[in-house]
């Protein structure tokens, strides 16, 4: 067992007791058996038990674009491919099928909590609710007309209605999603801040995504976007800043002093040539850092174990320190770190009494994880996502013996294949 907190270590021959969706005890087999009587017992031999993984940034529906525009710079990837594809294809049906495919991939590879920012957030929220996953849904705010909203005013109107609709849903949280400082008007950024303060809601934003964004900001504003957001008052503890490449020491201090959280997306940054997020420097400055996959169109995987491996290797390369982002620290970033970034670390992120029973089991009885010397290292540096056998969210099983419980995997894949035919041959009907 890897509880992550209160002690980030490996515990052998331990048990977890769960009652009404909560963890009520963690201890040795003997201790838990002596203190608790259960209606159901599950013994997992040769498994690693740990908190469910937190994918703190993604665009779930874009999973249907996976592999369509690879090996291109970010600006060209967006303007020549992704934006035209979105304009042509994105509608409620696309979002439902793409988000459900993403949820299937995440659940079966150990993610129990995710954050999404994309069009038709009400469709993704309903898909997440049906799948039984914990999710933060950030409704998109942009200055230009798109398939979901004519302008930012309509986005706010729809987003606030969505917030009201999910106010009492325990697993779904609605956040404000201003896309980026260069795609949202100044007044709308301030409006998002004002409303988010009133509702005590998170704000999720792409920030310092690549060098051209940083250069453009300095040319246009005379300062970086981090400095500009500080002037606007947007650097607050509920701000989740995604990507954060090309960050100076002074900007790190601004972010740290304000209590802003950072979401690191190493695979996406590498694949799009966007630069590196210096996680070690951010954490040394006291910044909370979570981990995200970004969308499958720019990753191309939503497997958080794969993302952890990338994060660990990037940290070692960027710093020149082989001890950077060691296994336990990387596991924390993908569990409790993500929960902290999303301000739900009182609910999830570690195996502690009182927290929600969001946990996963990884079967180590395979050649690729044998011999098992250090379980934490095996999870980071092997293909552990393929070995997830069980997933529980709020105590409810959503994956059992590797099979999804809440989703029809065959139907989800069949829908995705129909979309492949439609995207490759626009004249072909979906059904």
If you had to describe this structure to a student in words, what would you say it looks like?
- The protein has 431 residues and is an alpha/beta fold.
- It has two domains: 14-50 and 357-404, Roll (Urease, subunit C, domain 1); 53-341, Alpha-Beta Barrel (TIM Barrel).
- 40% of the residues lie in helices and 18% in strands.
- The protein has 15 helices and 15 strands.
- The chain has helices at 29-35, 74-89, 92-108, 121-131, 152-165, 186-199, 211-221, 225-232, 249-258, 266-271, 279-284, 304-319, 327-341, 375-381, 409-424; strands at 14-19, 22-28, 47-51, 53-55, 111-117, 134-141, 172-178, 203-207, 239-243, 261-264, 288-291, 359-363, 388-393, 396-400, 403-404.
- The strands form four sheets. The protein has a five-stranded antiparallel beta sheet, covered by helices on one side.
- Strand 14 (396-400) and strand 15 form a beta hairpin.
- Helix 3 (92-108) packs across helix 15 and helix 12 (304-319) packs across helix 13 (327-341).
- The radius of gyration is 21 Å and the shape is globular.
- The N and C termini lie far apart (46 Å).
- The relative contact order is 0.17.
- The mean pLDDT is 96.
């Amino acid at each position: 067992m890897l509880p992550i907190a209160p002690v980030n270590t490996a515990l052998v021959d331990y048990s977890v007791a769960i009652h009404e969706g909560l963890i009520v005890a963690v201890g040795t087999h003997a201790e838990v058996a002596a203190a608790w009587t259960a209606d159901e017992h599950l013994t997992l031999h040769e498994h690693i038990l740990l908190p469910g993984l937190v994918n703190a940034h993604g665009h779930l529906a874009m999973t249907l674009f996976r592999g369509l525009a690879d090996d291109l710079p970010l600006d060209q990837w967006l303007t020549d491919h992704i934006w035209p594809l979105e304009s042509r294809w994105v509608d409620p049906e696309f979002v439902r099928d793409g988000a459900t495919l993403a949820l299937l991939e995440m659940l079966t590879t150990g993610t129990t909590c995710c954050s999404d920012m994309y069009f038709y957030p009400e469709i993704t929220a309903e898909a997440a609710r049906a799948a039984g996953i914990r999710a933060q849904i950030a409704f998109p705010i942009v200055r230009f007309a798109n398939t979901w909203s004519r302008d930012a005013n309509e986005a706010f109107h729809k987003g606030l209605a969505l917030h009201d609709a999910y106010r009492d849903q325990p697993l779904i949280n609605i956040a404000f999603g201003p896309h980026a400082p260069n795609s949202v008007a100044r007044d709308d950024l301030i409006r998002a801040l004002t409303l988010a303060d009133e509702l005590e809601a998170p704000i999720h934003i792409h920030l310092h995504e690549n060098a051209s964004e940083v250069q453009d900001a300095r040319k246009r504003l005379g300062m970086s976007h981090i400095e500009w957001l500080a002037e606007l008052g947007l650097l607050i503890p509920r701000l989740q800043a995604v990507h954060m490449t090309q960050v100076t020491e002074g900007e790190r201090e601004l972010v740290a002093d304000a209590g802003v959280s950072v979401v690191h997306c190493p695979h996406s940054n590498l694949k799009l040539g966007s630069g590196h997020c210096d996680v070690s420097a951010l954490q040394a400055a006291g910044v909370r850092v979570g981990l995200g996959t970004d969308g499958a169109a720019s990753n191309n995987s939503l497997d958080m174990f794969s993302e952890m491996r990338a994060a660990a290797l990037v940290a070692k390369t960027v710093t020149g320190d082989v001890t950077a982002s060691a296994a336990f620290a990387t596991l924390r970033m993908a569990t409790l770190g993500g929960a902290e970034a999303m301000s739900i670390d009182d609910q999830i992120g570690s195996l502690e009494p009182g927290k929600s029973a969001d946990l996963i089991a990884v079967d180590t009885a395979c050649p690729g994880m044998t011999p098992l010397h250090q379980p934490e290292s095996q999870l980071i540096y092997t293909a552990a996502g393929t070995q997830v056998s069980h997933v529980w969210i709020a105590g409810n099983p959503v994956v059992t013996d590797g099979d999804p419980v809440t989703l029809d995997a065959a139907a989800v894949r069949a829908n995705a294949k129909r979309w492949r035919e439609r995207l490759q041959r626009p004249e072909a009907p979906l059904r």
